[in-house]
Amino acid sequence: MRILKTLGAAGCGAALLVASAVSARAVELSFYYPVAVGGPITKIIDSMVADFEKADPGITIKAIYSGTYQETITKALTALKSGEPPHVAVILSTDMFTLIDEDAILPFDELATGPEGKKWLNAFYPAFMANSRTGGKTWGIPFQRSTVVQYWNKEAFKEAGLDPEKPPKTWDEMVAFGKKLTKRDANGHVTQWGLQIPTSGFPYWLFQALATENGAILMNEAGTEVHFDDPKVIGALQFLVDLSKKDGIMPAGITEWGTTPEDFFQRKIAMMWTTTGNLTNVKAKAPFPFGVAQLPAHARPGSPTGGGNFYIFKKTTPEQRQAALKFVEFMTSPERAAEWGIKTGYVAVRPDAWETPAMKEYVASFPAAAVARDQLASAVAEFSTHENQRVTKALNDGLQAALTGTKTPAQAMKDAQREADRILRPYRH
Amino acid sequence: MRRFEPQIQGWLLLLPAAVLLVAFTHYPAVATVWHSFFSTARGGRAAQFIGLDNYRDMMDDPVFWQALRNNAVFALGTIPVSIALALLMALWVNGRILGRGMLRLAFFTPTVLPMIAVANIWLFFYTPGYGLIDQLGSLFGLPEHNWLGNRDTVLGCLIVVTVWKEAGFFMIFYLAALQQISPVLGEAAAVEGAGRWYFFRRVTFPLLMPTTLFVLVNAVINSFRLVDHVVAMTKGGPDNASALLLYYIYDVGFRFWDTGYAAALTVVLLVILAVLALGQFLILERRVHYQ
Question: For B102-114, what is each residue's pLDDT tens digit?
Answer without folding.
Answer: 888 888 888 888 8
